[in-house]
Specification:
- Pfam families: Acetyltransf_1.
- InterPro entries: Acyl_CoA_acyltransferase, GNAT_dom.
- By secondary structure, the chain is α+β, with helices and mostly antiparallel strands.
- The chain has one domain: Aminopeptidase (3-Layer(aba) Sandwich).
- Helices cover about 30% and strands about 30% of the residues.
- It has four helices and eight strands, in the order ββααβββαβαββ.
- The radius of gyration is 15 Å and the shape is globular.
- The two termini are about 25 Å apart.
- The mean pLDDT is about 85.
């Protein structure tokens, strides 16, 4: 999908489950490989996707994106429920690359807005979100997917 300096962002598949397990374990999320593959399949069947950033081995980052319709918006809203970059790979532009790919997927799905759920206790997330075009809206960060005039 997207690449930058050898880093590729693509849709995750069942073969990525083991690498994703170690990445999620860094964040305190323990999932078995078979369960991970099952959850990936469930997200693909629903209105959503899981994208990973890889270079030469296990994933360096992950973004999980879902979209849903509301009566208050002209099109669906894309919601990022997980954005995670490995501790050793932070400050290399991987988070920005994942957000760019997520926004492209959301636009392709007809979404009009991108939201990101803020994890409590992450002191770096608000600064990162503001630097990438999001505005704080309660416990979420919101960014329009429409071109700004």
């Amino acid at each position: 999908m997207t690449s930058r300096f050898g880093m590729e962002v693509r849709a995750a598949n069942a073969g990525d489950a083991a690498g994703m397990m170690s990445l999620l374990a860094e964040a305190g999320i323990a999932i078995e490989a078979t369960e991970m593959a099952s959850r990936l399949a469930a997200i693909r069947r629903a209105a959503g996707t899981v994208l990973i950033a890889t270079q030469w081995g296990p994933p360096s980052g992950i973004v999980i994106l879902h979209w849903y319709s509301t009566l208050g918006e002209a099109g669906p809203i894309a919601l990022i429920t997980t954005l995670l970059v490995a501790l050793d790979d932070r400050r290399r532009g991987i988070g920005r690359l994942l957000l760019k790919a997520a926004a492209q997927v959301a636009r392709s799905a007809g979404c009009v807005r991108l939201e990101l759920i803020a994890a409590s206790g992450d002191a770096t997330l608000p600064e990162f979100c503001c630097a990438t075009g999001f505005a704080e809206a309660g416990s979420r960060f919101v960014r329009s997917l429409r071109k700004q005039a």
